[in-house]
Design goal:
By secondary structure, this protein is mainly α. It contains 42 helices and seven strands. It starts with about 30 loop residues before the first helix and ends with a helix.
Length: about 900
Amino acid sequence: MRQLQLLRRHVNIGAKPPINRDRLDLLQISSQQQATMVNYRMTRSYSTDVDIGKQLQQVFNDMDELDNREIMNINDASSGLQISKGQNAQELLKSICRQPLSGAEQVQGVAMLWMYYQRMTTEEKLSVTEQLQAQLMPSMETHISAMDIDELSSCYLHLRKMHVPNSDSTLERILARALKLIELEVGGRVIPLSALSRLLVAINLERAFFTPLVCRNFTPHLERHIADCQTEQQVRLLSTCLFQLHTLIDDELLDKYKQRVGNLLQAGTISRATPKALLKLLHMLNLPVWSNRNTALIRHLMLELRDCLPQLESSDLKSVCRTFLHHQEPATLIQPLKEATEELLQREPSADALSCAVPFADLQQRDAYIRQFRELLESKAAWELPNASGHFFSVLRALKIADVRYCDAYWTAVMGQLETCPKQQQHLRFLRHCQRYMNFNNNLGGTYRHHNIERKLSRMCLDAIEHSVAGRLPSKFAHLAAFVMAYGHTPFAWKKFPNLLLSKVLAMAPQFDILDCFLLSRGMQIACELRFRQHVPSLLAMQLSTLDSVLLSCSERHLANSEEQPLGASELSVIVRTLSHRKSLKNTQIYNVALSRYKTLQCEDLNSRVVRDMAYNFNSSHFFVPELLESMFDYVAQQHEHVTGDTVEKVLTCAYNLGYTPASLESLDYAATVLLRDFDHMSGLSLVQSCLALCFYKTIPEQLINQVFCVKFIQRIEDEIQICYSKATYPGLVLNRVMQLNRTVCLDLPETNVPWFQQNYVEAQLSKKPFVPSDFSTEVKHFLKALLKDENYFRCNHTTPYGYQIDFVIHFDKDKKPMPATPVEATMLDRITKVAILLLKLDSFCENDLTALRGPESLKMKHLEMMGYKVLQINEHDWNSKYMLAPGAKANYLKCLLQISS
């Protein structure tokens, strides 16, 4: 019976799982106690927290539901068990252990003992666990063969909840017997769903087993239960089972369950009147392994829950909130969630509640939330709550706090946890701090450093790589190595990465998956940005070259494998970002192949998260895929009621930057409607960029212009600049976009009567940035001077009244003869032809199409023509092409361009 020992994944197999202290179970007790406890249960909901780091807690939440059914089983039992109504747990335990009871009676006694166990102190619980092992387990062993699957599953679940370890021989036999019964009934009698759910929850406690192997025979039974699913209770139990067994659930089985759920939703069997079933479904469908494929159903479930939000328990409300923040839809939940989380924060002033409320906060609420954050940060009790560091980190990022004092206080507190809490070493829990620090440091542009936390985490990572099994697992190693590479704090860190990392990367290269490569490239990127920006030592350059080769070979393998198993949009986006982290990889064939693979994507399963990722990659790579851009606009048009303004802004900005115009202007009308709806929930920068794109398409509504060009919105922009935490880039970016929007509205929409108020800004920017001619412009200037015979006939780096810069301006008289440049801007009344020569560099065009001019350049040309210029272009790619190397080719090219006869 000890063969199960071979299946255990962890060495500390007897370790005790965390204790859920706040639950009571209704067991076989007095009617008055039953009524009291039933009322208590009626006020509770079941947690469905979707955080990947909280899946273990979900196991205990699933126990709550199983206990409710266990109560009914015990109350309905017809056995003649007459256990003393014991005044305490010890008497009940003695009755169970000493009386000659049947197996069924012992199982009921164990379930009853659980009620008392919940109320005990830690020392009393340890004592009960020891007595169970010493007294009950030996006597129970003789009854195992006579127990049915319900009794086995109930017994195993409650004993595991009371921390009897899996290494106990009797408990091993109980589990082995249950698994054997399930195996024997494959193709025969279907195992009750309640028994399957109990076993799955108990087996996943502490993740002590390799679930796909232990539970491989559960799937046939679940298939039959899905086909027969007709009630809300079955939906809840099946959702629990699929969540616990997700590694064995294929697309076909999941689709069958989703279809069954859809039918039950349509029939009204599950609806807003059954929030617990909706929450169970929501949690199961939002698992990271398949959440992107379930967006439509998740959206439906969240819309059903909308009216229930004020009545949800805090844990469930937090779960819905985090689900929304991940999927960024449906938009109609923004205001209800804002109101519900504000009420939650008043009832429960914790870091967890604050992390849910902050993303929906108005600008006016920010100061109050910062004060509350500071108070919680200084509270010892707040740090003792589960996952406190994660919730504090979410608040720190969402509030965009740039005050170094708060940042230092947070990371110093994390340091204290790492040094005083042994649990941080278990299961590499400290890795979550590594990932958070890398993201936080990146958001602040590398301007913030906490060297103590870097040193501590780096040493912990290196120690795990050298001395633990994690250093031999590619997925774990990639997380560990990324942090060490990023921040160093190792011997000779000033000139190279540790040799150990390089040797392990080379050895594990064939096993790295898409995410592993992404993490390694992020570590390399941060290292080059933070530690080696000014100088790359020769030894490090060799190591970087080697790592680049590994990333290229892995990416090539992932792309090649996609022919058999097609990549999803999310996976492809990760590959593209992996390669784009390294400038040396952006000019490779593999990078272009990865980008071109976007053309083969199927767009049926788009959702807001995928659309945003695709927009980011297209923006950063300047890659032009009309089919996908069109599908993004189609998604906005079809789901305009559900997509948020931020998602619409990402699509509009991406299309504008790439110079793409959608096939139908209807999608732009829907986009404008979404912006007006979410105007108060979007950042000023997002609104300005969205308006600029709509101006490019000439579809911006007058109402939106009026809301942007008013004193209230300008003050809002100024307030955002004051509180932003990336002072090095954000203010300049916002002011520049406002200037561009003001210029575009003045030139394209003069009927709106918006004044030009950016002249001082334009002049200030010109004084800050002295003109530095490039080799390209210097060479063109040389040929122009030779062609026109006099340098006075053209003006270099000319600035127009609206702040556009023109590389060369040439004036021709009415006889088409060049004439000296006028000191002031000429008009059409002077009968002078103004020729603007624009030097178009490679980044003026899309990466994969040198004929596709990007939006900002197209808009500039259109505006210059409106200002009376005849616009001519010189493409850097053509200028430096082979046929231009012939003697006199460039001079002849300029003659033809300017239509000047020799």
